[in-house]
From TrEMBL:
It comes from Micractinium conductrix. Residues 455-467, 475-495 have a biased composition (Low complexity). It comes from the Eukaryota. InterPro entries: AB_hydrolase_fold, FSH-like_dom, Rhodanese-like_dom, Rhodanese-like_dom_sf, Rhodanese_C, TrhO, TRHO_N. This is Rhodanese-like domain-containing 6 isoform X1. Residues 526-542 have a biased composition (Polar residues).
C-alpha cells in the first residue's frame, strides 16, 4: 500500500497555491541544471473537469508515458494533483503542456509548478511505497479527499470520446464549484505573522493566534513549525478526511482567534481553510501559507520557524529543514527523522518512525537483515492506536468521583417520549454508565393525520389496501436499512425495533381510519361522503385507536383546533366541509410548517415547569428537531439564570438570583441539540437574538445535525443558525451524512461521549469547589 493510498488520497507530494510560475520556472535550483538531471515535479490545479475527467485522464497519461515519467496523478472532478519524477527536461515539457491546456486565468487560480532536482531515492522501500517506480493515473472525485459529502463535486456527463473538452476551455470556471478558502499569504508574510505574534505576546486586547498544520500525524512527526506565542495545533490525523471531524471537535479552541494554516504544498489548506470558514462568523480570520511549507523552505533555507524535515510523497522521503531532529523512534524513543525502513503500525498500517539501530537489531534477531516494505516484526503500534486502546478502557468507567448525569430529553414534532426513547435505544446503551436519560411527553396531542386526504385519494377499502402497500414499502425500506446498519453496527438493533413498532402502529391507525371513512360512506344517504373533516373530527378519530402524537409548539391552525374542541366539549360532526377551519386543515402539513409553529408555548412552558420541579434536578437537556428548538430556549434561559445568580448570590444584595422568565429552578449546565432550528415564536426569537448579539449564550452545547442538504426536513443551515446563538468557545458541532435522525454510529457516539465526559469533569470540579467553600 502506498503512502497516498493509506492517506485516503490526501495531498500528493505537496503542491502550491496559485503561484503562476511558468513551466520550469519554479524550484529555484532546478533552473540551472542540465535537462538530463533527474528531478521531481509537484503541482495541483482546481479546475472544473466534471464533464471531461475521463478524457483528461487519458490525455495526461499518454503525455506522461511518452515523456517516460513516473509517479502519481489524480484526475478529479474538481481538478488535478500530481507528483512526478523524471528528467528535468521531460518534467518541464509536461508542465508546459499542462499550463497550455489548463493555465487560462478564466479557468481558475494559476497553477504553481514546483520543480526541483532529486538527490535520488531515499531507499528502495521509499520508492516502492511512494509509487515512484511506476506511473499511476487515477480518476477520483476530489483533488484531495476532504470527505464532506455535501461538498463533493458531481459529474455532468460522460466523455463523448471526441478528444475535445469544453470545460477545459475558457468556459470552465471553477469559482462556483468550490467553497471559498482562506486568503493566501506569501512565505515572507507568513514568517512575519509568526514573528509578530511573539512581539505582541502579553499585550492586552487581542487573542493569541493559532497555527493549524493540516498534514497527517506521520508527516508532522518529523517536522513542524515552532514559533513563540503561537499555539500549534496538530490534528494528529491518519488521513486528511479526518480533519473536518477534528475541526468540529475543537471549535471552542479556535473561535474568535487569528488562524494560520499550513500543509506541504497548499492543496490541503485550500479545502481545510474553506471548512474552517464554513463553521461560522467566529472563524473568518484565516490565512494559509501560499505554496505550502515547500515554498517556505525555499524562502528560508535555514528552516526559519520550521524545525525538522519536510515529509514528501515521493522517492526522496523528506527534504529541507535545518539540523534539528524532532522525531522519535517508536521503539526506543531516540531522535529519528526518516522513514527509510517503512515500518508500519501493526493495527492501522500508518507509517512508523524506527531508527536504524532498532530496525537492524529487530530484523537481525528475526533472521531478516533487510526489512521488507511495511514489515513490523516487533508488533509496534502508532500513537493513535495506543491512545485508542487507553480511551477504550477509560470509557468503560465513569470519571473519578463522577456521578451519572441526568439529562431531560425532549422529543420532536409528532413524536412521544416512548417513541423517542425507542429511537435512541442504541445510543443510550453506549452511554448508560455516564448518563440517565429522562423522557417526557409534550402537552399538545396531535390528530393522527393532520392533513386530510385530497379529492383524488382512494376511499374505504381501496385506501386501506393502499395503506398496507405503503406500509409494506416502508417496512421493506426499513428492513433494508436495518440490514446495512447491522453489518456496520450490530448495536443499532434497538433503533430498528422501535422503527418497526412505529410502522406497525401507523399501519393499524391507517386501516382503522380508512375503515371509519368506509363506514361513514356506507351510512351516508346518497352513498357519498365528503373526505375533508374538521380538525376537531380528526382529534375524535385519534381517540378511536390512532397512535398518540405530541408537540411542544403548534401552528396557529392546530392550536385553534384544540381550543375549538375544548370550547365545544365534544366534537361537532356536522362541521361544514367548506368552513375556514376545514380548508386550512388540508394545508397544515408541509415542508415549512416548522417555521410557523409559534403557538401553544404557554401550555408547554407550564408542563416543563412541572417536570423540572417534580422530576429534577437535571444536569442538561437533549432535544431533537422541535425538541431541540425548545431545548435551545431552555438553555439560554438557564444560562441567564446562572449569570444572575453569580451576580446576585442568594442571600446577598439583589434578591435570590432567580431569572425572570425562567422555566424552572435548578439551572441546566449543558444542552445537546440534534437537528435543531430556531423557534419562530417572537419571544423566543428575541431571546436567541439577544444571546447571539452578546457573543452567544454562555453554556456548553453540542449540536448534531446533517450537513448541507442531508437532512431534508431541517436543513444544515437552519441548525447552524441555531448553533450561532451559543458561545463558540463552549460550542461543539457534529455534522453527519445522515438525514433527520440522531446517528448511533461510532464517530457520533464518540463525540457525544467526549462531550458528556467533559461535562462530568466540570461537575466534579464544581462539587469539589462547593465543598471547599
Amino acid at each position: 500500500m502506498s503512502d497516498t493510498e493509506h492517506d485516503g488520497a490526501a495531498e500528493i507530494g505537496g503542491s502550491g497555491g496559485g503561484g503562476g510560475a511558468a513551466a520550469g520556472g519554479a524550484g529555484g535550483p532546478a533552473k540551472a541544471l542540465s535537462p538530463a538531471v533527474e528531478g521531481v515535479l509537484l503541482y495541483y490545479g482546481y479546475r472544473d473537469l466534471r464533464s471531461c475527467r475521463g478524457e483528461v485522464a487519458a490525455w495526461i497519461e499518454a503525455l506522461s508515458t511518452q515523456l517516460g515519467l513516473v509517479g502519481r496523478i489524480r484526475v478529479a472532478l474538481d481538478g488535478l494533483n500530481a507528483t512526478l519524477g523524471g528528467t528535468l527536461g521531460a518534467l518541464r515539457t509536461h508542465a508546459a503542456a499542462v499550463e497550455a491546456r489548463f493555465g487560462s486565468a478564466k479557468q481558475g487560480p494559476a497553477i504553481d509548478f514546483k520543480l526541483a532536482a532529486s538527490h535520488g531515492r531515499a531507499s528502495a522501500a521509499a520508492a516502492a511505497g511512494s509509487a515512484f517506480d511506476r506511473l499511476t493515473v487515477q480518476q477520483v472525485t476530489e483533488v484531495v479527499s476532504l470527505g464532506v459529502l455535501d461538498w463533493l463535486p458531481q459529474p455532468r456527463r460522460e466523455d463523448d470520446g471526441s478528444g475535445t473538452c469544453s470545460s477545459c476551455d475558457v468556459s470552465g470556471d471553477v469559482a462556483g464549484l468550490l467553497p471559498a478558502g482562506a486568503r493566501h499569504v506569501e512565505p515572507a508574510e507568513f514568517h512575519a505573522l509568526l514573528a509578530a505574534a511573539a512581539a505582541d505576546a502579553g499585550q492586552p486586547g487581542g487573542k493569541a493566534p493559532v497555527l493549524i498544520d493540516a498534514r497527517n500525524l506521520y508527516e508532522t512527526a518529523i517536522g513542524r513549525f515552532k514559533a513563540p506565542a503561537v499555539e500549534p495545533m496538530d490534528p494528529r490525523v491518519r488521513c486528511f478526511s479526518d480533519t473536518p471531524q477534528w475541526l468540529e471537535a475543537n471549535q471552542h479552541r479556535l473561535a474568535g482567534r487569528p488562524i494560520l494554516m499550513c500543509c506541504t504544498g497548499g492543496v490541503r489548506c485550500e479545502r481545510a481553510s474553506a471548512y474552517v470558514k464554513s463553521l461560522g462568523p467566529s472563524f473568518q480570520d484565516v490565512v494559509q501559507l501560499k505554496g505550502g511549507i515547500q515554498r517556505y523552505l525555499e524562502a528560508f533555507p535555514d528552516g526559519g520557524f520550521f524545525k525538522g524535515q519536510l515529509f514528501v510523497f515521493d522517492e526522496r522521503g523528506a527534504v529541507g529543514g535545518g539540523d534539528e531532529v524532532v522525531g522519535r523512534c517508536a521503539s526506543c524513543a531516540t531522535p529519528c527523522s526518516h522513514y527509510l525502513h517503512r515500518w508500519r503500525c501493526a493495527d492501522c498500517r500508518m507509517l512508523l518512525l524506527v531508527c536504524d539501530g532498532c530496525d537492524g537489531a529487530t530484523h537481525s534477531s528475526a533472521g531478516k537483515p533487510v526489512a521488507p516494505p511495511g514489515a513490523n516484526p516487533a508488533g509496534l503500534r502508532c500513537d493513535l492506536c495506543q491512545q485508542r486502546q487507553v480511551e477504550a478502557g477509560a470509557a468503560t468507567t465513569t470519571a473519578s468521583g463522577g456521578r451519572r448525569l441526568r439529562i431531560l430529553c425532549l422529543h420532536g414534532f409528532r413524536q412521544t417520549a416512548r417513541s423517542f426513547e425507542g429511537r435512541t435505544h442504541a445510543l443510550r446503551r453506549r452511554l448508560k454508565d455516564l448518563a440517565e436519560f429522562v423522557f417526557v411527553d409534550a402537552p399538545h396531542a396531535l390528530p393522527a393525520w393532520s392533513k386530510a386526504p385530497g379529492d383524488d385519494a382512494p376511499a374505504g377499502a381501496e385506501a386501506a389496501s393502499a395503506g398496507r402497500q405503503a406500509h409494506d414499502s416502508m417496512a421493506a425500506a426499513a428492513a433494508a436499512g436495518a440490514a446495512e446498519r447491522q453489518q456496520e453496527e450490530q448495536q443499532q438493533a434497538g433503533d430498528v425495533r422501535a422503527v418497526a413498532a412505529e410502522l406497525d402502529a401507523e399501519l393499524a391507525a391507517l386501516v382503522a381510519q380508512q375503515q371509519l371513512l368506509a363506514e361513514e360512506e356506507a351510512a351516508s344517504p346518497d352513498g357519498t361522503q365528503q373526505r375533508q373533516h374538521s380538525p376537531c373530527k380528526q382529534l375524535q378519530q385519534q381517540r378511536r385507536g390512532m397512535p398518540r402524537r405530541c408537540a411542544w409548539l403548534l401552528t396557529p391552525e392546530q392550536h385553534a383546533a384544540q381550543h375549538e374542541e375544548q370550547r365545544a366539549g365534544t366534537c361537532q360532526d356536522d362541521v361544514p366541509a367548506g368552513t375556514a377551519a376545514a380548508a386550512a386543515a388540508a394545508a397544515w402539513v408541509d415542508d415549512t410548517q416548522f417555521q410557523r409553529q409559534a403557538a401553544g408555548w404557554a401550555e408547554s412552558e407550564q408542563e416543563l415547569q412541572r417536570v423540572l420541579r417534580e422530576q429534577g434536578p437535571f444536569d442538561g437537556v437533549l432535544g431533537f428537531s422541535q425538541g431541540a428548538a425548545v431545548a435551545a430556549v431552555l438553555a439560554v434561559q438557564h444560562a441567564r439564570q446562572q449569570q444572575q445568580q453569580e451576580q446576585h448570590p442568594p442571600g446577598g444584595i439583589g434578591g435570590n438570583g432567580a431569572c425572570e422568565g425562567s422555566v424552572g429552578a435548578g439551572a441546566l449546565r449543558f444542552a445537546i441539540m440534534c437537528s435543531g432550528y430556531r423557534s419562530p415564536l417572537p419571544a423566543h426569537a428575541a431571546l436567541l437574538d439577544a444571546a447571539a448579539a452578546a457573543g452567544g449564550a454562555p453554556i456548553p452545547t453540542l449540536h448534531i445535525y446533517g450537513a448541507g442538504s442531508a437532512d431534508r426536513q431541517i436543513s444544515g443551515q437552519e441548525s447552524a443558525a441555531l448553533a450561532e446563538c451559543f458561545d463558540p468557545t463552549q460550542r461543539f458541532v457534529v455534522r453527519h451524512a445522515g438525514g433527520h435522525l440522531i446517528p448511533s454510529c461510532k464517530s457520533v457516539v464518540a463525540r457525544l461521549l467526549a462531550f458528556l465526559q467533559r461535562c462530568q469533569r466540570e461537575d466534579v470540579r464544581a462539587r469539589a469547589a462547593g465543598v471547599a467553600c
